[in-house]
Amino acid sequence: MEQETIEIRPKDETWDEAETQEKTEIQDNVEPRESVEVQKKNEAPDEILLAALKLFSQKGFFNTSLTDIAKQAGLKNTSAVYPHFKNKQAIATQLYANILDSLSASIDDIRCKNPKSSGQLRGIVDLLFKLTDDAPDIMRFLLILKLDEFLPDEKSMLESPPFIKIHKIIQSGIKAGEIRNIDPILVNAYFFGIINTTLRFKLTGMLEKAADAYQGQAWIAAWNVIAKK
């Protein structure tokens, strides 16, 4: 199954690859190229977000300073951060929003490709295990950090769009007879309890192999708990 990746980009930025390429070709013919300084300024928000993600996931939010983030992003000092983000919490808020937006879009794609709830859940599990191997900082941010401690005003994970969509997948599975007829919240807890615990073990070093090595076992265990016999 083709896997989706999560990209860390400013929340309000949208783009179309083909359109962007076309515009670039036109501009190259009629306008001088941007200076290196302007290009760096335009790239700064992305660099700041990526630097913060790495530091937050490895050191924790409270052990990371704005100076650390600026240095990791290749900026001269913290004054280069303020035009883009007013403080460290604003960076974390943007990161959280971007990750949830990308995860939500990935789940939409998975739902389109798989008509059954079982296939949709399997696709989501595939995505989470792939992210754990390929983008562990994202998964540490979601599964290891205590987000409510530094993002108290943000919705919890269970109230976020991606998990509302997962809740609907579970409801559809119950209605179709694929999933046991119990409270969907309990189904979510049983199923993702196994999946997320496995991923946490991997992210914290308790499991030595790549996450992919444990995916099949975790899926079987999680699905057998909720599947209607």
UniProtKB/TrEMBL annotation:
Per UniProt, the ranges with Basic and acidic residues bias are 1-13, 20-38
Task: Please provide, alphabetically and separated by semicolons, the GO molecular function terms listed in this UniProt record.
Answer: DNA binding
Location of region: Disordered: 1-38
Which branch of life, at top level? Bacteria
Keywords recorded for this protein, A-Z: DNA-binding
User: Signal sequence span per UniProt?
Assistant: none
Q: Which residues form the HTH tetR-type domain?
A: 42-103
What SUPFAM superfamilies does UniProt report for this protein, alphabetically? Homeodomain-like (SSF46689), Tetracyclin repressor-like, C-terminal domain (SSF48498)
Report the protein name in the record.
Answer: Transcriptional regulator
